[in-house]
Amino acid sequence: MKKTIIYSVLTVTALGFAAPIIIIAYNSFKGRLYITDELFALPNDTSFAGLSNYIGGIEAVGFWSALKYSLFITVMSVAVIVLFTSMSAWYIVRAGSRSTKLIYYAFAFSIIVPFQMVMYPLSKTANVLNLDNPLGIVIIYLGFGAGLSVFLYCGFIRSIPYEIEEAAYIDGCSPIQTYFRVVFPVLRPTAVTVAILNTMWIWNDYLLPYLLIGNEYKTIPVAVQYLKGGYGSIDYGYMMAVLVLAVIPIIVFYLTCQKYIVKGVIAGAVKG
User: In degrees to the nearest 10, what's the CA dihedral of 123, 124, 130, 131?
Assistant: First the structure.
């Protein structure tokens, strides 16, 4: 009886979280007038619009261009975060000096700093340093993603026996060779977790791309807002279709990799 109650509660909760996505999905096949008047009604012979919303939405927002920039920024940012934060965490843990402890606490403190506190000086600094482009924003994402990533990596590295690395040094490996041949393969569970969490964040991020790269290099979240016409009018059919196209890649990615999240977070929470 207890398990039945728990599963029932979790099922209702899951449906509650999935409901907005389901509503958006079936409304993307309805005409714009029927969406506003009959939001929760399923498409019928009268309201069904076929793929016209998808075709029109793709053309209206320049979807393929936005997809290109979203993919580039997300893939590059995640790759940079996974590589450089793991190297930083390895040095912080293995050096174990007072200065590296201060660096670790600085990374940990950056997790709690809200973006709204630094967004205006950040946008000005990015403009002065010519970072207001798809390549420059990758560096900025590295800065914002480093805190949580270093925290997770440090927790996992503390659980790795140092004798493994000593054996590599004895066999003639340099520190760089030891990292790539011994340390990084062992970090794979946490690396996958860091990649998943940062991919979901960067792909769905609106405010940072909007402030830094704006109209010239529109990502998908930024492009969606351009469906708003004069006097605040919105073609909800186009918007629903574009939102479905934007959500599908990240849902597929998450469902494919979700099994690694809990494993990696638990591994990264180990205290040395």
Answer: -20
CA distance 62 to 265: 37
Q: Are 137 and 213 in contact (CB under 8 A)?
A: yes
Tens digit of each residue's pLDDT (9 = 90 or more) over 120-172: 888 888 888 888 889 999 999 999 999 999 998 998 888 888 888 888 888 88
Structural domains in the chain, sorted by start: 1-50 (no CATH), 53-268 (1.10.3720.10)
**Residue 30, strand partner residues:** 48
249: its two tokens: 């890649």
For residue 103, which amino acid is it? I
> Looking at the DSSP assignment, which residues form a beta bridge with residue 48?
30
With 0.70 as the threshold, say if the pTM is over it: yes
CA-to-CA distance for 110 and 142, rounded, in angstroms? 12
Share of the chain above pLDDT 90, in %: 27
- SS3 string, the chain, reads CHHHHHHHHHHHHHHHHHHHHHHHHHHCCECHHHHHHCCCCCCCCCCECCCHHHHHHHHHHCHHHHHHHHHHHHHHHHHHHHHHHHHHHHHHHHHCCHHHHHHHHHHHHHCCCCHHHHHHHHHHHHHHCCCCCHHHHHHHHHHHHHHHHHHHHHHHHCCCCHHHHHHHHHCCCCHHHHHHHHHHHHCHHHHHHHHHHHHHHHHHCCHHHHHHCCCCCCCHHHHHHHHECHHHCECHHHHHHHHHHHHHHHHHHHHHHCHHHHHHHHHHCCCC
